[in-house]
Amino acid sequence: MASNPTLAGLDALQLAQAQGRQSTGRRLASRTWSVLWPKLLAIAIVLLIWQLVHLSGWKKYAFAGPGATFASLWDQMHHLLLWQAIGNTMERALIGFALSVLFGAVVGALVSRIKPLRAAVGSMITGLQTMPSVAWYPFAIILFGLTTQSILFVIVMGSWPSVANGLITGVDYTPPLLLRAAKTMGLRRLALYRHLILPASLPAFVAGLKQGWAFAWRSLLFGELLVQVPNVPSIGVLLNTDQDQLDFADATAIIIVILILGILVDSAFVRADRAIRARWGITSGG
Amino acid sequence: MSVTATQAHASVVLDGVSKVYGKGGGAVLALDQVSLQIAPGEFTCLIGASGCGKSTLLSLVAGLDAPTAGQVSVGGRSAFMFQEPALFPWLTAAANVELALRARGAGKAERRLRAAELLEVVHLGGFGGKRPHELSGGMRQRVALARALAQDADVLLMDEPFGALDAMTRDVLHEELDRICADRALTVLFVTHNVREAVRLGDRVVVLSSRPGRVIDEFTVSIERPRRIDSVPVAELAAKITDRLREEMTRHGE
Question: Does the beta-carbon distance from A1 to B121 stay under 8 Å?
Answer without folding.
Answer: yes
